[in-house]
Amino acid sequence: MAGNKAAAAASGAQPISTDNLRQRAAVAEFAVPPTTIVVDDKKKQAKKPQSPSIWQLLDEWEVVYAPIIFTAIALFTRLYKIGISDIVTWDEAHFGKFGSHYLQRTFYFDVHPPLGKLLVGLSGYIAGYNGSFEFKSGETYPPEIDFWTMRAFNAMFGIFLVPMA
C-alpha cells in the first residue's frame, strides 16, 4: 500500500483512491510486420528531369552575383562626380596636412594610428604631389595638384571593402 502511494506521488497522479490509479496502456508483445506495397512507377521513370527554375538558379549563384552587384554599386556611389569640386573639404584639410608631413619627411605627433594618413601620403605620391600645399579648408586646389587621383585612390579602399564583407 505504501509502495502504491509512493508510485502515485512520483508519477504526479492524484488518485481518488489507491485502487483507481491511471495506468499506462500495456504494449503488445507481438507486432504486425509492415507490409510493402509495390507500385508500378513507369510514368515517373519516363519523365525527363526538370530544369531548375529561375529562382533556384538565382539562389545557387547568389554568392557570385551579389558581391559583383554590390561592388558595382559601391564603385558608382564612391566615384560618381568625385572630381567635380576643386575645393578642399574638411576631411581633406585634416588628413591632407598629415599626408604632406609624410611626403616632406617632417616629424609630427599624432595620437591616432598612422595607416590612414600613410595612405593619404601614398595617394599624394602617386598623384605627383610634393607636399607643399597647406590644405586649408575651403581653399581651391592649385592646377598642378591632381586631387582626382588622390580622392579616387582613397575611395578605392572603401570600394574594396564591399566584396570582403
Automatic annotation (TrEMBL):
The keyword Transmembrane helix applies. Transmembrane segments: none annotated. It is a multi-pass membrane protein. InterPro entries: ArnT-like_N, PMT-like. Keywords: Glycosyltransferase, Membrane, Transferase, Transmembrane, Transmembrane helix. It comes from the Eukaryota. GO terms for molecular function: dolichyl-phosphate-mannose-protein mannosyltransferase activity. It holds the Pfam family PMT. Pathway: Protein modification; protein glycosylation. It is found in: Endomembrane system. Residues 69-165 form the ArnT-like N-terminal domain. Its EC number is 2.4.1.109. Belongs to the glycosyltransferase 39 family. This is Dolichyl-phosphate-mannose--protein mannosyltransferase 2. It comes from Sporothrix eucalyptigena. The lineage of its organism: Eukaryota, Fungi, Dikarya, Ascomycota, Pezizomycotina.
